[in-house]
Each structure stands twice: as structure tokens, then as C-alpha cells.
């Protein structure tokens, strides 16, 4: 009986580790933190082009750089999202994802991102990048801080992105971003710079 319990726990731990690796997120104990989001989030001001300038560790982005995101607000206040990135080593365009980001009715700063695909809904939900995103901070004109988290029973796995209107974030804006992170007790050391050298024209 004891051996069966041990085998079960090992299996659960292995499966959980695999899920975390596939989702390429940072694991932590307990449920996802309930971080506050931007109050009175303005969809119209947020739309337009953003550049990923910093992010937490993400396996799927180890070979990518020059990531851009374009948010276009539809009449129903749902964002049409276009994400483009390039190979870090040769600069070739790698990915051009299209999808939608739907604000939650109870909080417009919480967005549900889905990739446009002909795959069955169950498979689409499992695609990398699909999920819920929180806008933890933005001034609309220079920076935005996005957060995503997945609950996995006794563990959670999360990701952070810092976006900017330019490929380089000003010192003033970076201080604002780090102040938000420190207020939320999120370690800014988790972030790494996104490469933006010799980016192709998308």
C-alpha cells in the first residue's frame, strides 16, 4: 500500500513537471496570486502596436526576438491581436499568430486570448499562449505590464511580459514598471531583455 502511494505521488509530480515544462512557465506553490489590475482600463487607448522588451523565462521564446504585438479594437470591444516574432540567430520571420483577446465583463483589464485556428476547441485551448492575461499596469503611451497564470492543483505556473511602444523602454518607464512589480511583491529579477537588434520589417 505504501509503495502504491509513493508511485502515485511520483507520477503526479512527474506529470506536473511535464505540464509546467510544456506550458513553459515558472512554477510556484498554491493557487495563482490574485494581483490587482489597471482600474478603468481603456481599450481604445491600449490598442495599437506594442513591442515586447522584457519577459520572464519562457522556453518557447528562447530562440525568438523582435516580438511585436498589434491590438486592434473591434466594435464589440474585443481586440484583434497579431503577434510577430523573428529568429534570434538569423533574423528570419518565424511566427505570425492571429487571435482575439476578449475583456472579461467584470474586469476589462483581464483578457482571454484565443488563437484563430480550425482545430477543435479542446486542442486550441491547449496551444501555447492561449489563456487569461491581466494588465497589471500601463500608461498607454510608453509601457504595459502583462501577467498570465495557470492553476494546476497544488501548483501554479505564471509568466510576465513588459511591453513598450518603442523597441527600447526609457529609464523612467522601466522604473515605473519595477515599482509596480515591487508593490506586488514580484521579483523584477525574473525578467530578461528581449533581443531587438537587426529586426526585420514585418
TrEMBL record:
PROSITE patterns, per the entry: LIPOCALIN, PROKAR_LIPOPROTEIN
Lipocalin/cytosolic fatty-acid binding domain boundaries: 41-194
Keywords: Disulfide bond, Signal
Biological-process GO terms, alphabetical: lipid metabolic process; response to reactive oxygen species
Example GO molecular function: pigment binding
Secretion signal, residue range per the UniProt entry: 1-24
GO CC term (a single one): cytoplasm
Sequence similarity: Belongs to the calycin superfamily. Lipocalin family.
Protein name: Lipocalin/cytosolic fatty-acid binding domain-containing protein
Amino acid at each position: 500500500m505504501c509503495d502504491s502511494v509513493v508511485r502515485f505521488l511520483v507520477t503526479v509530480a512527474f506529470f506536473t513537471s511535464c505540464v509546467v515544462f510544456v506550458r513553459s512557465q515558472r512554477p510556484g506553490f498554491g493557487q495563482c496570486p490574485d494581483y490587482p489590475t489597471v482600474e478603468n482600463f481603456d481599450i481604445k487607448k491600449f490598442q495599437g502596436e506594442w513591442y515586447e522588451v522584457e519577459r520572464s523565462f519562457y522556453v518557447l521564446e528562447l530562440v525568438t526576438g523582435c516580438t511585436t504585438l498589434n491590438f486592434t479594437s473591434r466594435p464589440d470591444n474585443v481586440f484583434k491581436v497579431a503577434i510577430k516574432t523573428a529568429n534570434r540567430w538569423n533574423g528570419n520571420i518565424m511566427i505570425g499568430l492571429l487571435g482575439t483577446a476578449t475583456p472579461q465583463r467584470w474586469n476589462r483589464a483581464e483578457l482571454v486570448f484565443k488563437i484563430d485556428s480550425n482545430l477543435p476547441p479542446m486542442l486550441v485551448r491547449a496551444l501555447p499562449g492561449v489563456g487569461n492575461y491581466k494588465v497589471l499596469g500601463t500608461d498607454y503611451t510608453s509601457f504595459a505590464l502583462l501577467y498570465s497564470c495557470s492553476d494546476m492543483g497544488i501548483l501554479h505556473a505564471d509568466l510576465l511580459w513588459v511591453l513598450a511602444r518603442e523597441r527600447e523602454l526609457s529609464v523612467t518607464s522601466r522604473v515605473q514598471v519595477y515599482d509596480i512589480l515591487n508593490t506586488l511583491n514580484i521579483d523584477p529579477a525574473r525578467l530578461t531583455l528581449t533581443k531587438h537588434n537587426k529586426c526585420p520589417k514585418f
